[in-house]
């Protein structure tokens, strides 16, 4: 994105924020706890029927401005307290409000479970929530990392700027089965097909709440919410006004053998102003930079070497975080030999950053009709573990959103525009550098396309004693000779070639190009008020729908789009009906959603739930849910010829005219045919040998790609055991099918079958003459597997004000009779638990919070290690923070640590070991700390 475009977008925010002149009055007062008399900092005060509001400061004081004359009503609310409405006369007399302590945090209001506001106690499915206070007091370095303390959450760290969230199994470092929304906007770069953690998300200063729905949520949120949805909400500029500034400075890499201690910096600023009851504006900016965690696991993972011979002296050595050594040959008389690779730390840049800019204008056309325009621009660098290790270098995401909200409806449109900038594939970079310096036996540097074979020729000649001065039959000596002229990390020539290849996009280099766009529109309408007016009290009806278009562009480096952008679209519509019965003790809800992607058949995803509340303290829930996931853009449209094989996405239009899905053999059947032919040919001749063995070839039956499917059943129980102790438990069972996978086929020049339906001899001859092309096709596995699990959460507040929360999660996977090669890895520990202990005022103006996380060891399987398992050891982490409030200076001073004991922990095989981060932050908040 060009600088002038950023300036223009921000200028629009300022232009739209011109003051609306109106006569106003001020309402002021204090908010305190009814039992203790202590001020309630952060209490929300809103004028009923308007957006005008304020937040109480550290002394419980608030002041708001409104143009409404005469008596008015204000609503005062605070996390953990019962909401109160009070009448205010038309005078300047301050008001004093005292809020009663709520029974428990389970009385929070949530939106995520049903897309409408409802009590957490009555939510039909499992929901987790972080409110404003929880976000502010999280012991983690950022609020996003604090989500890991919620029950049922799996968080995987690929780097300092990239953490991935998953729920209920099938975790990955790039999770396309989980939806992440910010103010209702999907913040995924469409080319990725998944959200890159919080890299393009919310600043800590602007985060108001987080709601998590684990499990299938497609019935309300569409195909991306296959395994769950995370809804993050930013702060409303009408409600949260004033200037906020945060400076966070810390240190990581303590006792790291790879490097010395490094500085961590995170800065943020937020300004919000309501110019009247109608117009409010906010501007938010944050910038973080630091030294990323190093991926330095050099374990030899060569699949064909016997375990006792693995290690640095193995001629076929393939180090996990070493790149270039994947290139190998099996040499007669020597065995398998791999090229010498480069360490990841010499290929990538671990100096990472994250820049986020946001501007928003909120305008009330009427007291109940609000128009919103927002623009978000984020850019940063991250190291991401996928099929390779990628440097997401200078990657940017630009979002524009317009929205109209009424009392019963919402209409919204937004666009996501990504630019990969200087991103590159680290493994490919190592391989390409290795092709720049190889010399032939005469000492001449050869062309890149000849480099690999020439290197192996040098190795062979040296090993066989054909090179003067080099010991024969010695792998070490042969490697040293083959590596003559090798570019050494840090040298001028190495750095020059590295920079050049990073900028070359496509197969000739390591650069990545993606300038994909996504356009989205959605709307919903709540008919509850109309039904109530018609005499149908206790009946709620919500309907909605969306349209989304993708515009893919990689200039032919990934997709077949040199001739122009690839466009495709999808739409969906849903309805939800709920009814309360038995004197409001039973609430029944049914939902249904229909989605249609232009490349696939339409899918209907229903959901049904019941919540039974025999008393105000006990609430039982049960639900049946369905979900599905559309293939990502790469799953559908990748078309990449990498020489011996072409990787081909599974959308029918992507292979139109190629006749691959229709005319090919299973690659696994080639061995039987060739071996049979080789045995028979000397006896009966080649032609008869073909006829004798051709039927050993098996025609492939690979369907075009289709969405994945899941059906899930869940039961749960929420209870307020006492006014200070609550419990929330659930159990779920899910059945999955249609998992997306790859399969390799062989497509001959001739038709696979003859007119009689048997294997065509000409096609068999094509196999022998290598008149064929290998294809790696995206398709679905027919296998069915199941997963189940349970969570238990407890929350207890002592009479002295200490808050203790604990939760545990059990997850289990049943492969049943499925082929393991057809099923994505579960990648989830069986057991994990969290315990948090804190006190908001353990001493005057002093609070603390400590969180402990533990999880069991498990095997991680991912494409980075060719789907071979790597062990993730059991580990426990402690995050802690102490906060000092300084009301006089409107400031919070926080001293904290993530991974307090500085254990270096790997969370996904091939990803870096993550150590401790120790920080101090200073937050000035004009709106809350006066």
Automatic annotation (TrEMBL):
Span of domain TonB-dependent receptor-like beta-barrel: 428-900
Ranges where the TonB-dependent receptor plug domain occurs: 123-229
Gene Ontology biological-process entries: siderophore transmembrane transport
One GO molecular-function entry: siderophore uptake transmembrane transporter activity
InterPro entries in the record: Beta-barrel_TonB, Beta-barrel_TonB_sf, CarboxyPept-like_regulatory, Plug_dom, Plug_dom_sf, TonB-dep_rcpt-like
One Pfam short name: TonB_dep_Rec_b-barrel
Gene Ontology cellular component list: cell outer membrane
Places the protein is found: Cell outer membrane
Highest taxon above the source species: Bacteria
Main location: membrane
Leader sequence segment: 1-22
Protein topology in the membrane: Multi-pass membrane protein
UniProtKB keywords: Cell outer membrane, Membrane, Receptor, Signal, TonB box, Transmembrane, Transmembrane beta strand, Transport
Family, per entry: Belongs to the TonB-dependent receptor family.
The protein's name: Outer membrane receptor proteins, mostly Fe transport
Organism: Spirosoma endophyticum
Upper lineage: Bacteria, Pseudomonadati, Bacteroidota, Cytophagia, Cytophagales
